[in-house]
UniProtKB/TrEMBL annotation:
Similarity comment: Belongs to the DPH3 family.
Keyword Nucleotidyltransferase found: no
Descriptive protein name: Diphthamide biosynthesis protein 3
Quaternary structure and interacting proteins, as annotated: Component of the 2-(3-amino-3-carboxypropyl)histidine synthase complex composed of DPH1, DPH2, DPH3 and a NADH-dependent reductase, predominantly CBR1.
Biological process annotations from GO: protein histidyl modification to diphthamide
Domain (DPH-type MB): residue spans on this chain: 4-60
Pathway in which this enzyme or protein is active: Protein modification; peptidyl-diphthamide biosynthesis
GO molecular function: metal ion binding
Native source organism of the sequence: Phlebiopsis gigantea (strain 11061_1 CR5-6)
Transmembrane intervals: none
Region (Disordered): 62-90
Record PROSITE patterns: DPH_MB
Top-rank taxon, per record: Eukaryota
Keyword Zinc belongs to the record: no
Amino acid sequence: MGAYYDEIEIEDMAWDDEKRVYHYPCPCGDRFEISRKQLKNYEDIATCPSCSLIIRVVYDPLDFEDDPDSEEEDPGSEETEATDDSDSEAFEDAMEKLQISA
Ligand SMILES: [Zn+2]
């Protein structure tokens, strides 16, 4: 391709914890952005929402391979019920042990 405005190392980009993106200043005054999810999917192009410039992000995909990637895709409602069950079981176990040791 070779149409990048620049190549930037991931270490030189800043992390936005609220938007969960890496960003780097764009000459137009806005900023290039790329999400962890994109990096995990081996995408290395950060785009600026305000102009047509793009940069290539230099990074090691292995660093992002094991990312939990939880917030966006997992609503977590089913897990809550399972946790409740195991909690009450653990409570009963604790009561049994309490009576045995008493
Ligand atoms: Zn721009």
